Amino acid sequence: MKSQDQKARLQVALDFLELDRALKVAEEAAAGGADILEAGTPLIKSVGLEAVRQLRARFPKLDIVADMKVMDAGRVEVESAAKAGAAAVHVLAAASDATIAECVEAGREYGARIVADLLGTAEPLARAREVAKLGVDFIGVHTAIDMQMRGKNPFELLREVVEAVDVGVCVAGGIHSENAARAVETGASVVIVGGAISKAPDARRATEELKRAITEGVSIPTDLYKRQTGEDIRKVLMQISAANLSDAMHRRGALPGVRPVAPGLKMAGPALTVRTAPGDYAKPVEAIDRAKPGDVIVVEAGGVGPAIWGEMASRSAMNRGVAGVVIDGALRDSGDIRELKFPAFSRIVCPNAGEPRGLGEI
Q1: Residues 208 and 331 grouped into a single domain
Q2: What is the pLDDT of residues 117-128, one digit of tens each?
Q3: CA separation (Å) from 191 to 28, 78, 213?
Q4: Are 297 and 270 a contacting pair, CB within 8 Å?
Q5: Domains contained in the chain, number
Q6: Domain of 129?
């Protein structure tokens, strides 16, 4: 790894659980121009330092990093990683000064650079100054995935840290071909990229694009690998399948037995939730008037008939700009709704309608 005054380098994080998958992506990334290959924390937890050993053996000309996220027993962990072939070891800046000092000493003894990752620190800028004085080689500015989901990015903190310390600074968390150049402009000496390469259909090409973005200072547009919030979430969801979403949600949140009136229908939007008695369509109809454009009306109707939705409700919903309807109960006029191509999902299709009694709530 190089210091801050040299050209920025591209580090590819191999955050896999399976070693064979990690090695395959490593081959493609190396061919695409990666400077550094990182045995990510999930990989090390899954298969141990054998990941570092195999990466070292297969890629003798590249730096191999062990993202150990050391919090204790610094000397032992750094020594073991260095002996396995790691040129650098990631430790957590949240660790005690004693642990970080042990990491630094072991790193010097065994020839490994120490990267202090600011992940999870309460006062990251102050801690960056402290660990820099302890002798680490790099500070890591890292926006965690859970924080990325809330729209956070690392660039503001990156700028502050670069200005505050005299060591190299690595940046990780939501980096892709559109913003990698910004990371370099902000002062990163190592740009760490994970999903934008490891999840790409062609990891070699993705690496080449990231490398060009870093070395030439260009922004290369991409529709993928970007965390989205607010209104952008609907656009993203409409690009994927329900099965994709189920996997991303760790197989939670599905509604077994609820089916579309026709194959291929898709919808996404804020849920306007309705509870009604079986067969009582008063509240679902009222919900159409309350709905905003893009809303999805979601009705809990006891999972039984008779129908609380049909063609007229679908037409009214379409006129209001409603994105679709989900009914844990019954709908009718499925053929007409199918012709309208209105995204309607229900547990039951039956011909008989209920009555508007007005029970329930929105």
Answers
A1: no
A2: 999 999 999 999
A3: 18, 22, 11
A4: no
A5: 2
A6: 9-216
